[in-house]
C-alpha cells in the first residue's frame, strides 16, 4: 500500500505528540498539509507515560507563586555542570530559556495542575513540577501529560476533514531518501487483524520527525548496549521494551551522526520488589522520594552519600558501598512470600527511608500505591524500622540524629549534603505517632543520554560534515548532545516539549515551503 502525506512523526511519546500538536497549529491556516503520527505499540505514551518525578522549569507561574528565586542562568549552569563538559551549550540554553513556556503550555493549553515543586539531585533550586494528589489518589505526572495530549490529538483526528491521522500498531522500518540525500518517505509495518499477517506500507512525505525514544529497554537483545556499554549488560532497567533504539537504526542508515552513545544513565533507585526481586524490569522509585527528603542507608544502617547528588554519583556510591554481604540491603525471610522461589538480586542495593514529614510532603496517594504494589513498607517507630531492616537500633538512631543535627546546621554533613528538605526524627502533621516508610532500591538502566546529533531547530546532523540531513528532524530521547554525561531529573520531559515543539514548527515550515 502506498500513499502520500506531508509530515510523518514516528513515535507517540511526549516528544512525538508535542511535535504533532505544534505542527498542526502551525499549518492550520495552510490548506492541504497533512500530518500523520505513527506509533508501533497499541497505545501512545512510551516511557513518557511512566515519568513520576516531574518536569523542570524556571521562572514558571508555580515557582513565582511559591517565591522560589530561581533563574535561567542557574538552570543552565546546573545542566552544564551535570553534563561534565559534554553538553552542547546552544542546546542547553534553549532548554533553559524555553522551560517556562513549556510548563505554561501544559498548564494553560491542557489544564494540567503542575503545582507541586521538588528540588531534585543536581538542581540548585526546587524546579521540578509535578501534580498534587487528588482526593487522596496520586496523579502520576507523565501519565497525566500524555493522556491530555493524546485526548487532544484524537479530537483533532476525529474532526471532519481532518488533516491529521494517528495510527497505532504501526512500526516504521525504513526511511526512504532521494538520490540527493533528502529524506522523502518511510516504510512501516502493521498487523492485519483479520488475517494476523504483516502488512507493509510505503508512505511518501516531505519531512520525517523521529521521536522514537532511547535504547534503555533493549533487555534480552542488547545491541547498542553490548556495543557501547558492555559493562551494563545484565543490569535491570526501568524502560519499556519498546525503547530499543529503532530511531537510531533508521537515521544512521541515511547517514545521521551519533553522539555520546556510551553515556547511559543508571538510575540509583529501581524498586526491588519483595515478591519478585530478580525481575529485570524495575518499577522506578521516584526521584522525588529523595527530593522531598528520603535518605539512603546501607545494610548496616549508615548513610553513605548526599542523597541529592546527581544520579550518577548516587549510583556509584550504592555500587561501591552497598554491594558486599554486610552492606547490601536485603529483605528478611518474613518479607518474602513463602510460595515463590526467592532470588537474591546480584546487584548492589540500599534502603531508602522516609520519615513522616517526608512522607507527608511526598503525598500519601503515591505512597499508598507503592505499598499496594508491594514495593514500599511501613514501620511505626524507629525501633520497628531497625528490626525491619535488620540494623542495630543504636546505629540507626545515631544516623538519624546526626542527619537532623546537620540539618539544623549544628554539624557539617559528612557527605556534603547542603539541602535537607525534612527532619528524620520529628513527627509530621498527619498523626500523633511518628512512622517511617522504607523500601529496597537498586541501580537500574534508566536513560540513554546519547543519540542522534541534532541542532537547536531539531534538525538531524549528518555523521560526515555535520550538515543537517534535509527532511529529517528528531526530538526527545532519540537525540544526543543535550544532557552530556548525566541527565538531570525533570529535564527529559522538558526536552520532549521544548524540542518536540521546535521539531513541529520546523516540520511545518519545511512542509509549507514544499508547497511553493
Ligand atoms: C520510569 C521512568 C520514569 C521517568 N521519570 C521522568 C521524570 O519524572 N521526568 C523526566 O523529565 N523524565 C523522566 N523519565 C524520562 C522520560 O520519561 C523519557 O526520557 C522521555 O519521556 C522520552 O520521551 P520520548 O517521547 O523521547 O520517548 P518515549 O516516550 O519513550 O516514546 C517513544 C515512542 O516511540 C515508539 N516507537 C519506537 N520505535 C518506533 C518505530 N520504529 N515505529 C513507531 N513507533 C516507534 C515507542 O513505542 C514509544 O511509544 C522517566 C523515564 C522512565 C523510564
Ligand atoms: C534573587 O537572586 C538574585 C541573584 O541570585 C539576587 O540578586 C536577588 O536579591 C534575589 N532576590 C530575592 C528576593 O531573594
Ligand atoms: C463533513 O464535511 C463535508 C464537506 O466539507 C460535508 O459534506 C459533510 O456533511 C460533513 N460531515 C459531517 C459529519 O459533518
Ligand atoms: C536515640 O538517641 C537519643 C540520644 O542519643 C535518645 O535520647 C533516644 O532515646 C534514642 N532513641 C531511640 C529510639 O533509641
Ligand atoms: C552546538 O550545536 C550547534 C547547533 O545547534 C552547533 O552550531 C555548535 O557548533 C555546537 N557546539 C559544539 C561545541 O559542538
UniProtKB/TrEMBL annotation:
Recorded name of the encoding gene: OSM1
Keywords assigned by UniProt, alphabetized: FAD, Flavoprotein, Oxidoreductase
GO terms assigned for molecular function: FMN binding; fumarate reductase (NADH) activity
Entry EC no(s): 1.3.1.6
Sequence intervals crossing the membrane: none
Protein name (Swiss-Prot/TrEMBL): Fumarate reductase
Cofactor entry: FAD
Family indicated by similarity: Belongs to the FAD-dependent oxidoreductase 2 family. FRD/SDH subfamily.
Pfam families cross-referenced by the UniProt entry: FAD_binding_2
Record function comment: Irreversibly catalyzes the reduction of fumarate to succinate.
Domain FAD-dependent oxidoreductase 2 FAD-binding residues, every copy: 7-493
Catalysed reactions, as listed in the record: succinate + NAD(+) = fumarate + NADH + H(+)
InterPro entries in the cross-refs: FAD-dep_OxRdtase_2_FAD-bd, FAD-oxidoreductase_2, FAD/NAD-bd_sf, Flavocytochrome_c, Succ_DH/fumarate_Rdtase_cat_sf
Cofactor comment text: Binds 1 FAD per monomer.
Highest taxon of the lineage: Eukaryota
